[in-house]
């Protein structure tokens, strides 16, 4: 493991995928254990996708008091939590079914309209223990969570004063046929003490460097997580 610190991010390079998986899971365990020791409970926000799934599986095997851990989502597709393409399904099957006792709060509630789900998510964010940790990914287009460049609601979501916002990514190819989303906003990133961005492959590192050089958050929304106040974004990368 090799960490490089800049004034904007901490880039942690891992020798191989196994070291990457173990290193990220161990850092998450350390953050959660410290929060439990200090506050009695810990809350974290997770992202979907295939990249973090091995990390979640490894984390669930570590000896934490999972009954003291609450789990939420950084974003979600407008799908039932039981749909295999939802982030909720991935988190349940890669993490929750192994971390016995952990409590999960999905963003989508069956039978409720999108606006009401967003309202409920923001109410919960206001009244729950603040998240101590968020795990993020990044697409090759520079999006993170569901903040997609070129989406019609991006400007509104970036300027929102709420923790979560609805976003319509119609016309964004990487939305993969699920344009309606609920996403964490820059306001939502800001109070989280540990923000982890998980990247694999040279192309993702090139996109990250392009984002840092451009400093154009509308083109590279991952900058919303990089530029959020507080501790530097920690980027875990391996080839």
Automatic annotation (TrEMBL):
Record-annotated Glucosamine/galactosamine-6-phosphate isomerase domain positions: 16-225
Organism classification: Bacteria, Pseudomonadati, Pseudomonadota, Gammaproteobacteria, Lysobacterales
A GO biological process held by the record: carbohydrate metabolic process
Pathway: Carbohydrate degradation; pentose phosphate pathway; D-ribulose 5-phosphate from D-glucose 6-phosphate (oxidative stage): step 2/3
Enzyme Commission no: 3.1.1.31
Protein name, UniProt field: 6-phosphogluconolactonase
InterPro entries: 6-phosphogluconolactonase_DevB (IPR005900), 6PGL (IPR039104), Glc/Gal-6P_isomerase (IPR006148), NagB/RpiA_transferase-like (IPR037171)
Family: Belongs to the glucosamine/galactosamine-6-phosphate isomerase family. 6-phosphogluconolactonase subfamily.
CDD domains, A to Z: 6PGL
Its job: Hydrolysis of 6-phosphogluconolactone to 6-phosphogluconate.
